[in-house]
UniProtKB/TrEMBL annotation:
This is Putative acetyltransferase. PANTHER family: AMINOALKYLPHOSPHONATE N-ACETYLTRANSFERASE-RELATED-RELATED. GO terms for molecular function: acyltransferase activity, transferring groups other than amino-acyl groups. SUPFAM superfamilies: Acyl-CoA N-acyltransferases (Nat) (SSF55729). Keywords: Acyltransferase, Transferase. Residues 1-162 form the N-acetyltransferase domain. It comes from the Bacteria. InterPro entries: Acyl_CoA_acyltransferase (IPR016181), Bact_Acetyltransf (IPR050832), GNAT_dom (IPR000182).
Length: 167
């Protein structure tokens, strides 16, 4: 089941986010320390704003995906997505694809014309998923992040929602 996360999901969301950051730091912008330091009020505001959806298995949160629409008028046609994280035990069950489809449907219904994301160039499984879903690389951000003193590059990817996939 997929649904928008609410304040009642705060502890499960924080726990899954922390697990992901700890086990796969290159998949997240924030460090574990920054996740821990993120205040409850900020997270509650994010959840209250409907920015995060979750994938549930037997009522347990097993995956999440955030979407943030552009804030100013000239950016309202686009939304940034991510992070996307699925618990290792729930992988290969279609959770990531379902979360992405739900965000895409929500974005289209809201009149958003394109989705944008960043992904670590070395994260081959995520890159392959995004490509299968119709995202295309539009750029490279060298040294996008530095993890434990090591610079990492990100691919910038985009999916136009108002253009047929084979156009």
């Amino acid at each position: 089941m997929i649904r928008t996360l609410t304040a009642a999901d705060l502890s499960a969301y924080r726990a899954l986010w922390m697990m992901g950051v700890s086990q796969e730091p290159s998949a997240f912008l924030l460090t574990a320390e920054e996740v821990v330091a993120t205040g409850e009020a900020a997270l509650l505001a994010k959840l209250a704003g409907g920015e995060v959806i979750g994938w549930f298995q037997d009522e347990a949160l097993m995956g999440f995906l955030a979407m943030r629409r552009g804030g100013v008028t000239r950016l309202r046609h686009m939304a940034d997505i991510g992070p996307l994280y699925v618990h290792p035990q729930a992988r290969r069950a279609g959770a990531a694809r379902a979360l992405m489809a739900a965000v895409e449907a929500e974005a289209s219904a809201a009149g958003i014309l394109q989705l944008e994301l960043c992904v670590d160039v070395e994260n081959a499984p995520a890159r392959a998923l995004y490509e299968r879903l119709g995202f295309v690389q539009i750029g490279l951000r060298p040294r996008s992040v530095v993890i434990d003193g090591v610079p990492r590059d990100d691919l910038l990817m985009l999916k136009q929602l108002d253009t047929p996939r084979n156009a």
